[in-house]
Description:
The strands form 4 sheets. A 7-stranded antiparallel β-sheet has the order 9-8-12-13-14-11-10, with no helix packed on it. By secondary structure, the protein is of the alpha+beta class. It is built from 8 helices and 22 strands. The relative contact order is 0.17. Helix content is about 20%, strand content about 30%. α1 (about 5-15) crosses α4 (about 70-95) and α2 packs across α4. The longest helix is centred in the first third of the chain and has 25 residues, at about 70-95. It has helices at about 5-15, 15-25, 55-65, 70-95, 120-125, 135-150, 180-190, 380-390; strands at about 100-105, 110-115, 130, 155-165, 170-175, 195-200, 205, 215-220, 225, 230, 235, 245-250, 255-260, 270-275, 280-285, 290, 305-310, 315-325, 335-340, 350-355, 360-370, 375-380. The N and C termini lie far apart (about 40 Å). A hairpin with a 5-residue loop joins β18 and β19.
Amino acid sequence: MSRSYPERMSRRLAVPVAILLTTALITAAATPAGAAPTVTGAQPGAAAVDPRPDPAEVVAALRRDLGLTPDRAAARLAVATAAAATERDLRATLGAAFGGVWLDGHGNPVVAVTDPAAVHTARRTGTRVRLVPHAETTLAATAALLDRAAGHAPGAVSGWYVDVVGNAVVVRTAPGGAAAANAFVSEAGASPGVVRVVEGTERPRTLADVRGGDPFLTSQSMRCSVGFTVRGGFLTAGHCGRTGDSAYAPNGQVMGVFASSSFPGNDYAWVRLNPGWTPRGEIRTGRSTAAPIRGSVEAPIGAPVCRYGSTTGWRCGVVQGRNQTLNFASGEVISGLTRTTVCAEAGDSAGPFVSGDQAQGMLVAGTGNCTAGGTTYFQPVNEPLAALGLTLLTSP
């Protein structure tokens, strides 16, 4: 019997389970309510953080949330890493015929193409190929049309995103809101053949403005999480503070200032740290341990992702879609988000998502909870890095 793609890849890469799951331990530093919070930028003289993370919590989270044994988790992470490289290469090779790459429910990679002549080229990568009518560029252009018309979106529409698996741009709306959603699509100039309207009760909400055990305070008395460290400071969510606001340690000391903040439209900000605060290319796990950051390669659709939150700890799921736009009931619109099946609750806001040892983004919003399950959205980390000219700090 031939082995599945994940099994072949895991044997070919020969990655020890402990190493892969250790690299998956890249999450936000935050402590539970009632405990003394910690921050990524430590004061001089603070106790050193043990650089050897214990993978037990991530193993438990992957087993609980994705039903994966340690061996299968290692295989899935290995395939996700290989699939990310395949996606990059095929996008360049196939050009306008490229429809996207994702991992199916069994963790096997799939590539979509619009031209039968491109099937052979795609199959040479060892992935399963699916013929689709719409190219990735067409889906992205359609989502961009909706983004430009976001100010005219009806209140029933909660957002839209590019669904490469379904080969469509999905517009989500409240029950009974399909007619209004279709009218919005038409007004935006988007082709109805590329758009799929989905009704549902899901209504994303921000998770930031809740007092809890997050590791820093803002000028508006918000409690937020440090996302990923950059040279000279750290990234967090844009709705945590405006440009010029101060960021405070739990003891009241000023850590730094919001040098730039983008919200709505985007949801990212970076805090420039004051002298005496040293950012490091690692993430605290909340138990006096740390995990290294190695880069920020974007994970493909279907790849496993994990996040750490001070309220719910380690939680894992899979990437469902990119280029998600959220239309909040309060009127704000945020675009360019990534949708996941990872759950979250109040107090987890702005914490980082990772896939393996690769930084993915910061938690922006979500629905549901970690008892019944839910959906979350993160701001991809590469956008603020590029837009603000920042350098992600990585571990040596």
